[in-house]
Design a protein that fits this description.
Elements: H1 3-37, H2 40-59, H3 73-104, H4 117-137, H5 141-164, H6 168-193, H7 206-213, H8 216-242, H9 245-282, H10 288-321, H11 326-345, H12 351-354, H13 358-381, H14 386-419
């Protein structure tokens, strides 16, 4: 990179990571208090609800939001509108489905009343994805960072207040809902006042032809993203089905503590990286140095987090969250290889859409899914305990992630040779 590009890249990366770190520090600082206000069962219910929301949020825009950053300039506005229109349609279909499910459901579980929030939170997530992609395209990283901090503040304040006044059944899920709706509403209001969003025209006839020209995103990127979501949430689904809510809660705290910093920092790195990689690719510059740079930095960050967990995970969790959460620390030790490779892979997952290798990248997702299915089948047939299931899951997915990274470096190396031929 040239000196000026170096400065711009690291300034943008620093802006997003600073916002992500502040947002995460708030959650980490309050986590020991939350673990004493809420039970493992409460965290189990949260994990189940959030896994459902995550799955719906993957399909909400049919991945057209992922096309906004790498798309040509004359397509970006239309793709934003396509994303908004698609989010409205898919969330409406989800509302209808839940209405039918509620009418015909016999069993009244704890989560059943909360299902009504899923379509609204799904819509809010879809709008948020489109807006963040738009801000990313226009290098408005400070607004993304501010939004992350605001969402974290509101979410954690609601969770804390609800726990202190005895509304534990509302606190965890309600906190995430309020954080999402308040932060997005204020962001949209600010952007509207400053006229930084495109005019919303979801009924424009031109949108259909633009959507068709970017059909690879729903065809290949969407299934790949959905499978990735299943891989992330599969422990919750399997543990919910096979074991009790307390075990789901122990795993839920593990995922909350490890996944949250990895996701926030990894997402921040991805936002800056994907913008710069798309720019270099369209300029026919070699993007492999970008990959190497990000890999080194993400590996260093991940090592800082996972090494203490490997060394003394159960003791750390018991000291920080209370003795009833020692099991979560043990689960964290088992899952550190998976979280490590998932984190260093995160900033690079959008590269295939830039270099038009989405079909091949989809095959890597299918490979990960196949390994997951084999793990689940073995767990059922051999009646694996939670420990064996998480161990095989972690090792299997780590192997797939590492192999996909090697493949990605090979593909970008071929581009380098093409540019210099």
């Amino acid at each position: 990179m040239a000196a000026t590009e170096h400065k711009t890249y690291y300034r943008n990366l620093g802006t997003l990571i600073t916002g992500s770190v502040i947002a995460q520090l708030i959650s980490v600082a309050l986590a020991p208090l939350f673990s004493r206000l809420y039970t493992p069962e409460d965290f189990g219910h949260l994990a189940t609800f959030m896994s459902l929301l995550t799955g719906l949020s993957v399909i909400v825009c049919l991945r057209y939001d992922a096309a906004i950053v790498p798309a040509p300039a004359h397509h970006a506005n239309q793709l934003f509108n396509i994303s908004v229109r698609t989010a409205l349609i898919t969330s409406g279909i989800t509302l209808l489905t839940i209405s039918l499910f509620y009418c015909f459901s016999i069993e009244r579980t704890f989560l059943l009343p909360w299902l009504w929030l899923l379509p609204l939170m799904m819509l809010l997530n879809g709008l948020g994805k489109a807006v963040i992609a738009w801000l990313n395209r226009h290098i408005l990283f400070s607004l993304i960072a501010q939004n992350n901090i605001l969402k974290s503040v509101v979410t954690n304040c609601i969770i804390l207040i609800a726990g202190l006044i005895g509304y534990q059944k509302f606190g965890l899920i309600g906190g995430y809902f309020m954080g999402l709706i308040i932060s997005l509403s204020l962001l949209l209001l600010k952007l509207h006042r400053e006229q930084k969003l495109p005019f919303v025209k979801i009924f424009d006839r031109k949108l259909n032809s633009i959507a068709k020209s970017h059909s690879d995103f729903p065809k290949y990127n969407l299934p790949q993203a959905f499978i990735d979501m299943l891989l992330i949430n599969s422990p919750v689904y399997f543990l919910t089905y096979s074991f009790n809510t307390a075990i789901v809660g122990w795993y839920g705290l593990t995922a909350r503590i490890l996944q949250a910093p990895f996701n926030l920092i990894g997402y921040a790195m991805e936002q800056v990286f994907i913008q710069k990689a798309a720019e270099w690719y369209h300029a026919k510059q070699n993007i492999q140095p970008l990959l190497v740079n990000v890999l080194k930095r993400s590996s260093a960050i991940a090592a800082i987090i996972v090494i203490p967990i490997i060394w003394a995970g159960p003791d750390i969790f018991a000291w920080a969250f209370g003795s009833q959460w020692r099991t979560s620390g043990f689960y964290a030790q088992l899952l550190t290889p998976y979280f490590f490779f998932d984190f260093i892979r995160t900033p690079m997952t959008r590269i295939p859409s830039i270099i038009t290798k989405q079909k091949q990248w989809y095959l890597w997702s299918l490979a990960g899914f196949a390994v997951l299915i084999i793990t689940i089948i073995l767990s059922v047939i051999l009646k694996f305990s939670t420990v064996y299931f998480l161990t095989f899951f972690s090792i299997g997915q780590s192997a797939v992630y590492l192999s996909s990274l090697i493949w990605l470096f090979y593909q970008t190396g071929k581009l380098k040779n093409k540019y210099h031929s």
